[in-house]
Write a structure and sequence with these properties.
The chain is mostly helical. The protein is built from 5 helices and 2 strands. Helix 1 runs antiparallel to helix 2. The longest helix is centred in the C-terminal third of the chain and has 26 residues.
Length: 190
């Protein structure tokens, strides 16, 4: 099977159910941002040891994202015809992983943490911010065509999860979090 058609696409693409939509359609934008987040998760995975405890959870999330992308690419009028798995337990999976890490770490004194410290933590923040963009775009799509509720919840929990993963990566590496202090930057001359 060839990846190109040689006919040109004229800014159009097909979604599930053979429906045609513009490439800048909000549905396509949502999937593009989810694809971007999934790619960053893949990059994060390559930075971890093969036997790292995160690998299995990251793989599950990547698979769930692919399934959610298929569902997002399906208009609600034909949603029942799409037989892809629905990862409805995704939000609870994230919550359990979050709780496990938070039970090991000290409470933060400030939730405003600069996205830095080490490569793993910084990549977790890249995923978190990309997922936050997905969430905003999904709510726009939801206003036009209902998005399955578990997808909205799952994406919200994913951003929470990657925030905690970023903190946990620093905790495990014994690197102090750099807390944001408004108007008190050490780089600004007084």
């Amino acid at each position: 099977m060839k990846i190109y058609t040689r006919t040109g696409d004229k800014g159009l693409t097909k979604i599930f159910g053979n429906k045609v939509c513009k490439k800048d359609d909000i549905r396509i934008e949502c999937n593009g941002k989810l694809d971007e987040a999934n790619s960053f998760i893949g990059l994060l995975s390559t930075k971890l040891e093969e036997e790292d405890e995160w690998q299995e959870g990251l793989l599950r999330i990547q698979t769930d994202i692919m399934n959610m992308m298929s569902l997002i690419a399906t208009h609600s009028s034909v949603r029942g015809k799409n037989k892809v798995d629905r990862p409805v337990e995704g939000p609870e999976f994230c919550e359990q992983w979050i709780d496990k890490m938070l039970n090991e770490m000290p409470e933060p004194h400030n939730w405003f943490i600069l996205p830095r410290g080490n490569e793993i933590s910084a990549l977790c923040h890249v995923v978190r911010t990309t997922v936050r963009t997905v969430e905003r775009r999904l709510w726009t799509l939801n206003g036009e065509d209902p998005v399955e509720e578990f997808i909205l919840k799952y994406v919200n929990r994913l951003s929470d999860l990657f925030f905690v993963l970023a903190r946990y990566a620093l905790y495990k590496a014994q690197i102090p979090e750099e807390k944001f202090r408004p108007f008190r930057s050490r780089y600004v001359k007084k």
